[in-house]
Amino acid sequence: MARPYWSGQIQISLVSFGVKLFVATEAKGEIRFHQISRKTGERVRHQKVLASAREEAPDEAAAPVEKDEIVKGYEYRKGEYVAIEPSEIEQLRVPSKHTIEVTQFVGMDEIEPEYLEKPYFVVPENDVQAEAFAVVRQALRKTKKAALGKIAFGGREHVIAITAPDDDKLAGMMAYTMRYQEELRDPAEYFRDIKKVAINEDSLELAETLIKKKAAKFDPAKFVDGYEAALKELVEAKVKHAPIPKDETSAPKRGNVINLMDALRKSVSGGEAGGSRESEKKPAAKSGRGLSLIKSSSKPTAASGRKRKSA
Question: What is the pLDDT of residues 10-33, one digit of tens each?
């Protein structure tokens, strides 16, 4: 098993138990690019140098700064910095570095998807912690609640939601780091210029029928990275000095006037009005094993009721 990304305590009132968090995602792409010289084909390396050396002699190669000479610095005045040592950061007084204190429980349908950031697997620290872990997990599952708290890692403190999967075979819990309210842009700035139109009831009924027709249980295995596959094909062709594959599909023409009712009727009856057979095979997006635990709600929440700060 991989090393845990974070180890510490979950504390709920007077109840506490040790847990370990593991990153639930990993990069699966096979194609990795490096920067190389177009002239020589050699790999280009980057070096850290003093800014003054580049300013005084921009055409000369500057001496690299050794790794142990580099520390974090905060610019408190133009061109003036205060150095922050790694040991000083480690000694920051942030309780959530070691303990996730649960401050409240919320319905899983109250957390809007845009707040979710990254998933983690949560397991008990050892067998001694297993009983308290299992009791809290089952309670979260039966009440369909998420435990909210804070956790500090990666150079910042995150809001975190801890949930219990519905699957009996999964004995662990899931945790999701979340974005802060101020990190989300105000949707009104982007949606306010959308033209308001009258909804035709017949069109709406056909659209609902089309959605029901294409609805299916979410199977993540059906979705693959087509861009990665195309990159791999390109690389293999260049290595073998074969003809380079090119995109033969033309972009859809913009500005064409289409009859919405006709397009809906053909789609419902099995036609391909502007779509493709491949897209028809894809199931409707429904929540999967992890994200199904926290889903969108049409009800306004305390978070969504507040105006979001623009980035």
Answer: 999 999 999 999 999 988 777 888
Rg (CA), the chain: 26
Tokens 């872990």 label which residue? Answer: 133
Q: Name residue 6's beta-bridge partners.
A: 21
User: Predicted confidence band at 278 (pLDDT cuts at 50, 70, 90)?
Assistant: very low
As given in the structure block, the two tokens for residue 287 are 């929540």
Both tokens of 79, joined, read 């061109």
Residue type, 43: R
Q: Is the pLDDT of residue 309 over 60?
A: no
**Both tokens of residue 93?**
């007084």
pLDDT of residue 271: 66
SS (H, E, C) 43-84: ECCCCCECHHHHHHCCCCCCCECCHHHCCEEEEEECCEEEEE
C-beta atoms surrounding 162 within 10 Å:
27
In the block, tokens 């945790």 appear at 175
The CA distance from 61 to 70, in Å, is: 19
pLDDT, tens digit, 9 for 90 and up, residues 190-210: 999 999 999 999 999 999 999
Identity (one letter) of the amino acid at 268?
V
Contact (Cβ atoms closer than 8 angstroms) between residue 267 and residue 273: yes
Within a 10 A sphere around the Cβ of 100, how many other Cβ atoms? 26
Beta bridge partners of residue 11, listed in sequence order = 16, 101
Query: What distance in Å separates the CA atoms of residue 27 and residue 25, rounded to the nearest whole number?
Result: 7
- Enter the pTM of the model: 0.74
CA proximity to 61, closest of 45, 73, 72, 76: 45
Most confident of 55-69, 218-232, 248-262, 274-288: 218-232
